């Protein structure tokens, strides 16, 4: 049985027209489909941001197999309100460039090239961020500056490498890849990204091997290192404390010397004063013939001459007269006077 009998020309033509062509058209329609964009804030997870959506439109504009009418229709079909409301007034045959200009005025960046370039220069690696992820952020920021005229397209790779070396905190990675030496002939973004991801993967694999090999010995080595560090720190602290103690001891010895000198001077002056004082007192005692004694105080009545009670006088007494008590108190007072006269015979003060 011949090949023509198995595959007649009519059958071959039908297969080509209906199956192969339909598959090609389906593939083209699927590859040229744009992601949805609405311009809502916050952005839904199923939608793309404006810059990502516009990048897809630019690829569509560069496809020579798609006409302008198809491009405009695909742009309009990918829009959702409120972004779709911005272009509803445009005619179906409007150029896709007009669609982009209208949407750029509403959702595009309003910063000029210089401002975007300054923002690019202020982009640094965040804490915990991989170097490859940081490079991708730089590439997005630099693309915006290039689109707005802040950076020439021919200088894209040079600016990207320079800022990466400036803003990446992993100096060992920069040294390992010798990136600073390649500024005169910088690699492209794709080449540099591949270098970074390869190095990151190598370092991650090495860390896993080290963890598997060392196991429990790594914490022990770290403990020994920590102990040695603590021992050296303790020795330094002891030496510093010893030096301070010696200085304080020297200052204390000087203070003790000064205190001893002052004490000796005060003692000599006090002893001289004490020696002169007894001489004067002894001379006065010899002249008097006997030590001087303070005489006892002269007794006083201390009772009322009207009522005989203690604590007030007659002029302020409101009590009735009591002559018997007054006579008794007067007798006691006379006895006290006699007793005092016997104990103080040399007193010159008269009692009556």
Automatic annotation (TrEMBL):
It comes from Amphiprion percula. The keyword Metal-binding applies. Residues 238-265 form a coiled coil. Residues 25-50, 266-300, 315-352 are annotated as: Disordered. The keyword Signal does not apply. Keywords: Coiled coil, Metal-binding, Zinc, Zinc-finger. This is CCHC-type domain-containing protein. Residues 340-352 have a biased composition (Polar residues). Residues 304-317 form the CCHC-type domain. One of its GO terms (molecular function) is nucleic acid binding. Pfam families: PNMA.
């Amino acid at each position: 049985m011949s090949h023509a009998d198995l595959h007649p020309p009519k059958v071959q033509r039908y297969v080509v027209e209906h199956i192969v062509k339909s598959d090609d058209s389906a593939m083209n329609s699927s590859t040229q489909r744009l992601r949805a964009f609405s311009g809502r804030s916050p952005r839904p997870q199923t939608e793309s941001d404006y810059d990502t959506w516009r990048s897809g439109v630019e690829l569509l504009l560069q496809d020579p197999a798609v006409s302008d009418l198809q491009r405009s229709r695909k742009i309009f079909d990918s829009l959702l309100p409120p972004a779709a409301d911005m272009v509803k007034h445009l005619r179906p045959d409007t150029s896709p460039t007009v669609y982009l200009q209208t949407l750029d005025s509403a959702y595009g960046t309003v910063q000029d090239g210089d401002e975007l370039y300054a923002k690019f220069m202020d982009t640094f690696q965040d804490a915990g961020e991989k170097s490859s992820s940081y490079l991708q952020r730089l590439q997005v920021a630099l693309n915006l500056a290039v689109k707005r005229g802040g950076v020439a397209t021919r200088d894209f790779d040079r600016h990207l490498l320079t800022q990466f070396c400036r803003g990446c905190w992993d100096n060992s990675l920069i040294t390992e890849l010798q990136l600073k030496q390649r500024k005169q002939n910088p690699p492209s973004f794709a080449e540099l990204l591949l270098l970074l991801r390869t190095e990151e993967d190598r370092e991650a694999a090495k860390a896993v091997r080290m963890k598997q090999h060392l196991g429990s010995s790594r914490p022990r080595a770290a403990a020994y290192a920590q102990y040695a560090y603590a021992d050296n720190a303790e020795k330094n602290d002891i030496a510093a404390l010893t030096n301070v103690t010696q200085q304080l001891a020297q200052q204390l010895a000087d203070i003790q010397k000064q205190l001893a000198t002052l004490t000796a001077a005060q003692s000599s002056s006090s002893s001289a004063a004490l020696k002169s004082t007894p001489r004067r007192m002894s001379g006065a005692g010899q002249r008097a013939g006997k030590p001087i004694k303070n005489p006892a105080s002269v007794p006083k009545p201390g009772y009322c001459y009207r009522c005989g009670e203690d604590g007030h006088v007659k002029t302020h007494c409101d009590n009735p007269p009591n002559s018997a008590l007054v006579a008794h108190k007067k007798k006691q007072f006379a006895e006290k006077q006699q007793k005092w006269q016997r104990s103080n015979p040399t007193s010159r003060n008269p009692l009556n």
